[in-house]
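[job 4417] fold queue: 2 targets
>>> target A
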Amino acid sequence: MSFMLRRLYKGFSYHPDAIHIHPLVSLTILGLQFLFLLIGNDITILIPLLVLIVIENLFYGNFHGMISLLRAMIPLLVFLGILTFLFGGLILAYLLILRLLVGALSCSIFFAVTNPSDLARFLEKCRIPTKLALIPSLALTMVPRVAKDAEETFDTLELRGEIQGFFLRWLPKTLAIFVASILYRSEFLAQSLYFRGFGIQKRTYYRTVPFQRIDLIRSTLWLLFILLLPILKTFKIY
C-alpha cells in the first residue's frame, strides 16, 4: 500500500522546474481529452489518443511521474481487466484498460505542467467567484500532499509494527492518524488563504500569465489531432 501511495504522489505532483502551460490551454486540452475518452468507442481513436498523451508526458518532462502512476495502476488494471474479460470479452477489457490509461495520464500531465496559482488567477479573470476559482488550485496543491501524508502515516505505523494481522485491527488507527494530519494541514491552508486575500472583493495580481510559444505548439498539435480524427475513424482494427 505504501509504494502505491508513493507512486500516486509522484504521478500527480506539480513540477515547478518543468515546462509550464497556460491554464487556458491546459484546461481546454484536458476537456478535449476526456471528451475523446467518452466518445472514443473503438481502438482507432483511443490508441492514437494514448500515444499522443504519452508523447506529451515525455516532452514536458513528466517521465518519472508517468512511470510512477502506471506502476501504481497495475493492480487496478489487472483486476478490472480480468473482471471485464470474464463478463464482457477481450475487446471490452481492452477498451476499458485504454480508457483508464488515457484518463490517468491526462490528469498526470495536467497536474505536472499547470501552476496552481496561475490556474486560480486565470479562473478569477474569467469572472468566476474566488471561492470557486480556488477549488481547482487547492486540488492541484492538496491532492499530492494528502497522498504524501497517507504514505508517511502508513510507513510510520508499519515501522512501529502496528500494521499486522487482519486489516480491521489497524485500519481505524491508520485512518484516525491520517485525518488528524489533514486537520493539522488545514490550519496552514487557512493561513495561506488569508494571506492571499481570500474573500476580498477587489484583488490585484503581481504578475500576469502570458501565452508562450510552447502553448501555441501544444494547441496546434491537438488541433491537428482533431482534424485527423475523421481519417482515423476510417480504419477498422476489429
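>>> target B
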Amino acid sequence: MKATGKKLKVGIIRFPASNCDFDTLNFFQRFGHHAEFVWYKETKPLRYNLIVLPGGFAFGDRLYAKATRTYQIDPGALALRSPILRPIRRAAKEGVPILGICNGFQILVKAGLLPGKLLQNKAKKFFCDNVKCKLVGNSFFEDKTILGKTLTVPVAHGYGRYSVSKREEKTLVQNKQVFLKYAGPNPNGSTGNIAGVHNKEKTIFGIMPHPERSPDARYFMRAIEKYVEAN
C-alpha cells in the first residue's frame, strides 16, 4: 500500500505489557503521519504503509509453563503465539515494510523474519543510556544521505546482544544487511557491534536502540518517509 504524499498510514502492534507503544505512536504523529494501534488479537490483513513492532516487554518477557509463579525470561516467546503473527507473516510475504524496535526486533528474530539471535547482555544487567551508533551497509531504510553518519540513540534492554557466527556475520556484512553499529561502547556485547539488521529483501528492519526517542529522530523519520514513498 503506497503512501499518499508524505502522510503515512502506520500500524503499531500492541501486546500486553508493551511500554514503548505510545513513544512510537507519538514519534509518527509528531511528524504528521497517521499512526494507530493494532491489538495483538487482530486477525485481519494489515493494510498499512508501514507496520511497527515497538519496544517494551510483550507479555512481560515471561514464559509460563503453567499458570503458576514459575516462569523463565524469554523475550518474544509468548508474542509468537499471538493471533497477530499470522497477519504480520502475511504482510512480510507481500513485501509490506516492517520495523521492529528493541522487543519488536526480538520478536521478528524469534519469528524467523530476521536472521540471528538476541541473547542476554554480556554483563547480565539491564542497560539504559544514550549511545553513539553509526549508519553502515544499506543504511536505515536505504537512505544513502545518512550513510556513515553517527547518531545518538537511546538504548534500554536486558536481552539486546545480537549474536551470529563469524561466518554468518561475514555474510550479513557482505550483503550489507547490517545497517547500524554501535560506534562507542558496546552496551550488550553484540557480535561485531551490530545494532540493526534487515532481511535480504530489504523490507524488514530490526533495530535494538530506540530511534523514536532519539534527539536525532528526524534522520530516522526522513529515511522511512523516503523509503515508503519510493516503494
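[job 4417] complete. Note on B: The chain has one domain: 9-230.
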